[in-house]
Design goal:
81 residues
């Protein structure tokens, strides 16, 4: 699922090489942390969080029985030199 999120987000942002997704799997949940370049945060969030909500809906549809949680992590390492 991390590859799905990475693929979709890379198509949305101006700095696709800075997209990082980490995945932690539990028995009934999958937690995904998304980090993007600081200039791309607003693109991923979208107006009123709409784009991020749509990403979560796609992820929920792809996750099957397990609950998928997607968090946008701001201030991560993406974009730092």
């Amino acid at each position: 699922m991390d590859q799905l999120v990475s693929f979709v987000v890379q198509g949305l942002v101006d700095n696709p090489d800075d997209v990082e997704v980490s995945q932690v799997e539990g028995d009934s949940t999958v937690m995904l942390e998304l980090s993007v370049h600081e200039d791309d945060v607003e693109l991923v969030q979208g107006e009123d969080g709409e784009t991020l909500r749509h990403l979560r809906a796609v992820l929920a549809a792809a996750s099957g029985r397990r609950k998928a949680i997607l968090e946008l992590v701001e201030g991560g390492n993406a974009g730092e030199e």
